[in-house]
Every structure is written in C-alpha cells, then in structure tokens.
Design brief:
Helices cover 34% and strands 17% of the residues. By secondary structure, it is an alpha+beta fold. The strands form five sheets. An eight-stranded mixed beta sheet has the order 8-5-4-12-1-11-3-22, with helices on one face. The longest helix has 21 residues.
Length: 613
C-alpha cells in the first residue's frame, strides 16, 4: 500500500474574493514528444458527439441550459466533532506533527511555514509516510490568489533500464533500483522561498528537536514498524534506528531517536538544497542505491511550478493537481461527468448516485492506468490532448453509463485482460491561518517505508517511486521521466475564496475518496465530520469489483441496490484513505478541521487554544 503525506494549509480570515478562473489546461514547457503517441479515444465517433443522450441523465428536467451559471449552495459547517479556529488550525495524521505546525503559526508563521514544518516533522514522527527521500505535490493559494501548483515528484535515474525495472518489480518494488531521485527537499524549500515568512531555521526547528531528542512511539507507529520489520531488518541502518539492542522492532512507548536525520535536517536548514543534493549527503545516497541514483541525477533535480487543473462543479470552482498527477485528472473527469449525468443530485446519497460514481471511476481509472504520463515528455499539443480526454464528459462517456446496470470493465478498455496480469500507505495534514492563504500538500514514499533503504549517514529513508511506472500503457519507465501519482491535493473555492482544503492517502483510491467527500459536502450538504466519517467504496477498473470498508460497511439498502445493478461488492479489511480536511465558513470565516480517525490518532488543533511545547 502506498503511503503519502498530504498537507493542506488554509489562511481562513479575510480571504479576498477573486473572479473564478475558467477550467484550465496546465501550460508547461515544450518538451520532445513522447516516443509513444497518446492513443485514440475508444470511440472517436462517440467522443466527438454531444453530451450523451437523455436516457442516461438522472433528473433530466433539472438540466441547466448551456452556459447557465449555477449559484453554489452553502456548505453545512464542521459538525460537532470538528475543531473550530479563527487564528489558524492544523490537522494531520500524527499529533507531534500537528503541534509542530501550530507552534509555527503561533510564532507568526503563515500557512506555508506551518505546512512545511508539519511535513518535516512527519518525516521524523511518521516515517512510514513522511519523508525527505520521496516526492510530492503542493497547491499554494496566497490571499486573493492565484494558486500555484508545485510538482516535486521523483524522477527516474538516468541509469534506469527496462531489465533492471522488470527485476525490481519482480522483487515487489524493493532494492537499489526502486528509489527515484528525491524531490521532497527541493519542493518544500521552493515553496518556502516563494511564500514563507519565517526564517528557515525556525520552520525546521520542531522536526530537528524531535529527531534529536526522540519521540515516544505510538501504538500505531509501532504496529507499522512491526508489519514491515522483515524488510526493514535487512537494511543495517534501518534496523539500528527502528530496532532495539536485540534487533527486535521497537515497541509502543519506546523512544524513537534519529540523530543522523536530525543532523541532516539541521544542515538543510542552514545550507538549503546543497546539503541534500550535493556533498557528503549526496555521496551517501549514491552509495545506498549502489550507484543507480548518481550525483548528476541529484544535482540536476528541480521542483517545478505548474498551473493547477481548474474546473467548476455545482457552482464551485475546484483546483487540483495537474499531470503528472493522475488523481487530479480522475477527480476532474468524475465530477464533470457526474454533473452531466446528474444535473440535480438527490436529497441524500442513494444507490443510483453511488452507481454513477462507480461507473465513472471505472472509466476514469481505465484512462489513468494506461494514458497518464509525465507531461514534460509530451509536446504542448499532446499535453492538452491528455487533459482534454478527462475534462470532456462526452469523450469520457464514449462507453455510455447504463443507469440500471454495471458495465463490465472489459467493455470499457481493450487492455483490461492485460491489466489483470500486472501488478499505499499515506498520511494527510491541513493547516489554516488568519491571513488568507491556503496550501494543500501531499508527499509520499510510495510504499510504506518506501524501498526499505535508509541512507546510513543521513537517516533518510528512500522511496520506491520507480515502481510507480507501468509495464503497459503510456507511463513507461524512461530515464529522467517523472513518475505519475494518484496524489491529488485539492481546493474548492467560492468566488475565489477557499471553502474546502482536501487531500487523502490511498493510492488509486485517492480520487474516489475525494469524489465522495466533495459530493457529500457539496451535493448532500453534510457537515465535515460526517462526510469524513462516512463509509467509502472504490472501483479501480481492475479488478472488476467494488471494494468497501469492512469496518464501515455500506447501509444494507445501498449495498442491495448496487448488487441489484450488477456490481460485485468485496469487503476489505483496509481503511480507504485518511483524509484530514478543512472547511472554511464563508459567512464567519471560521475554519473547521477534522482528523480522519481511520488510520490512527490524528489531531486537529487550533492556534491560540492550547499551549504548544
């Protein structure tokens, strides 16, 4: 299971309105065209047609005339279990990290400062997901906008070969070939330079202190170490950090001390990128990967600023991460097609509305699996074509949705059979302060504890992002190419003012979880805590079944309704996502935060309400 970190930071008070921006295709630098052209749509004739016929549209009488503006219905607030704040608020999956972010807010930092501090702390206190050796995506919206998307996803080393890739996949994504060129340090520092307000040393201080002095290991963190101990114990540096003197995994209540990581953090705080991407730290990383990641790879890595992917849904403007995020494309395609098929949603979630979501996920996930790749490997025309396939409901619904019956996945894409033969652990945090800025940040090691390799001299765990490439479709392993990801940090705006800051872990379930959150909050007007706590389900195109949470099963009537339409429901022992979300009330500018209880003792904490050590 992939594990990633999502940080969402919102400055709630005094958010200046800004005229909505039309749905956009992210411009980017022109690059050589991919050697693999973007495949044609499943049915060019159908894709070129108008919006699908009326018989598949629910509530046809409610369809708005083309071009009609829709006034958004106000959101319903946080609910009784949410934490409210007017001077700043942090939500994350780990209490030490939440408190670190709040301490930065209370020291006068802004949302970017707090988000970076929280992300760095998660590298210390939540090492299965938080990281310096992985990568991620971030949306930053200063007061009044515009939003900037930071792409610091890992790139493939220049040494990567297809035989090496195939052997690494056979080894379940571990070993020295698995790590990509890390992007987290470059991305966080770039965001700090662009938008941070505190000295870098102050932002890094909480993470440095916790790594140096140690943290008391929670039951959940100890359980993660135990679950991955057979692999972690094979790496000498990881075994020494996460094990005791008898080479057994640390137990709950033990103190996790990471002296080498503390030194690395202090060096980066003092020297910037050079302390990570050059010098002795870089040389140690090269040795840890047996030379598969080179000094040249590290020295040439750059985080990139991109335009967010923008679209409208039910009168709100949604901003999410563009490619190489595949999750943002799936979310956009799902919601745009849903509003086409269901112009007016029912009063509450029902089997019919869930059926539409499942069928749209089936279609968007098929495209995600085969046809999303690093946009910088495409020329401008191909980049726009890639995004357009998701943003056009008619093209997405080339295989129409039957409102009464599930469509077999084999009918949706010709590579279904091949996908069956092909082969996440994540964390999310949100921040809101009083200045008008919002940030949504997601980082990942890909698999839990990444490649299970720790760089001995630096204490940095390396991700296994190279395993995110595919053996089929367009996302092929190519040296220098950025890996795609389902990470999708997302903002929902009303007339330019942030209303929702969203993100979640969960690999390919990320856009499903986000779709459910948006529909429950926007369509069904549920409060934030109820929307986060509600049962979740997912269809990933392959396998051709619907996964639902065993710990939070669907109500019997919804399950029966879906099964009557031909969906095969499969109970999963795993939680789906771990969304820590923020809702900002447009009338009072109060921010409400709620920590998803699914994966551990997350914490929502408002600045100014409690002493922060």
């Amino acid at each position: 299971m992939k594990r990633m970190l999502v940080v969402a930071a919102a400055l709630a008070l005094g958010c200046a309105a800004e005229p909505p921006t039309s749905a956009g295709v992210p411009p980017g630098p022109t690059s050589p065209a991919s050697t693999r052209p973007l495949p044609a749509s499943p049915s060019d004739a159908v894709a070129a047609a108008a919006v699908p016929s009326a018989h598949i549209v629910r509530n046809e009488a409610e369809r708005a005339a083309p071009g009609t503006a829709k006034a958004p219905v106000p959101l319903s607030g946080g609910g009784p279990r949410a934490v409210a704040g007017t001077h700043g608020l942090v939500v994350s999956a780990e209490p030490y990290a939440t408190r670190a972010g709040v301490s930065v807010l209370e020291a006068g930092g802004n949302a970017v400062d707090a988000a970076v501090a929280t992300a760095l702390t998660l590298a210390v206190t939540h090492p299965s997901a938080g990281n310096l050796g992985g990568g991620g995506f971030m949306l930053v919206r200063p007061r009044g906008g515009p939003t900037v998307a930071f792409d610091f996803r890992e790139t493939a080393p220049t040494s990567l070969t297809r035989p090496d890739f195939d052997r690494m996949i056979a080894a379940k994504g571990t070993g020295p070939v698995a790590p990509g060129v890390p992007g987290t340090v470059a991305g966080l520092l770039l965001a700090e330079r662009r938008f941070g307000s505190l000295p870098r040393e102050r932002v890094f201080a909480p993470a440095i202190a916790l790594a140096r002095d140690g943290v008391v290991l929670s039951r959940d963190e100890a359980a993660l170490i135990l679950a991955h101990w057979p692999s972690l114990a094979l790496d000498r540096a990881a075994r020494q950090v996460f094990g005791d003197s008898h080479h057994r995994p640390l137990r709950p209540g033990a103190r996790l001390v990471q002296s080498a990581l503390a030194t690395t953090l202090a060096n980066v705080a003092a020297q910037g990128e050079a302390a990570f991407y050059a010098g002795s730290a870089a040389e140690s990383l090269v040795r840890a990967t047996a030379g598969h990641v080179s000094l040249a790879d590290l020295g040439s890595y750059r985080a990139i600023e991109r335009e967010p992917l923008r679209f409208h849904y039910r009168g709100y403007e949604v901003e999410t991460m563009p490619p190489p995020s595949a999750g943002g494309l799936v979310l956009a395609g799902t919601l745009l097609a849903l509003e086409t098929l269901e112009p007016a949603p029912p009063a509450a979630e029902d089997a019919g509305s869930l059926h539409l979501l499942l069928e749209l996920w089936r279609r968007t996930q098929a495209l995600r699996r085969f046809h999303v790749l690093d946009p910088d490997s495409l020329d401008e025309t191909a980049r726009r074509a890639l995004v357009a396939r998701f943003m056009d409901p008619a093209a997405l619904l080339a295989v129409p949705v039957d409102p009464a019956h599930a469509t077999p996945s084999a009918r949706v894409h010709s590579l279904y059979a091949e996908a069956l033969r092909e082969l996440e652990h994540t964390t999310h945090l949100s921040v809101v302060d009083a200045g008008g800025m919002v940030v949504s940040l997601t980082t990942t090691l890909s698999a839990s504890f990444g490649a299970k390799i720790m760089v001995p001299a630096t204490g940095v765990l390396l991700g296994n992002a190279v395993a995110s490439f595919s053996s089929m479709g367009d996302n092929q392993p190519v040296p220098g190419r950025r890996t795609t990801s389902s990470m999708a940090p997302t903002l929902v705006l009303e007339q330019g003012a942030p209303r929702l800051v969203l993100g979640t872990p969960g690999g390919d379930t990320i856009p499903s979880t986000l779709s459910l959150l948006v529909t429950r909050l926007v369509d069904y007007h549920e409060p934030l805590d109820s929307a986060v706590d509600a049962p979740r389900l997912h269809h990933g195109f392959v396998p051709d079944s619907v996964r639902f949470e065993g710990a939070r099963p669907l109500p019997p009537e919804l399950r029966a309704g879906l099964e009557a339409k031909g969906h095969k429901l499969v109970r999963s022992s795993l939680a789906q996502g771990d969304a820590s979300a923020i809702l900002i009330d447009g009338a009072t500018q109060t921010a409400f935060g709620y920590a998803d209880p699914r994966e551990g003792p997350g914490l929502a904490l408002a600045a100014g309400t409690t002493a922060v050590p």
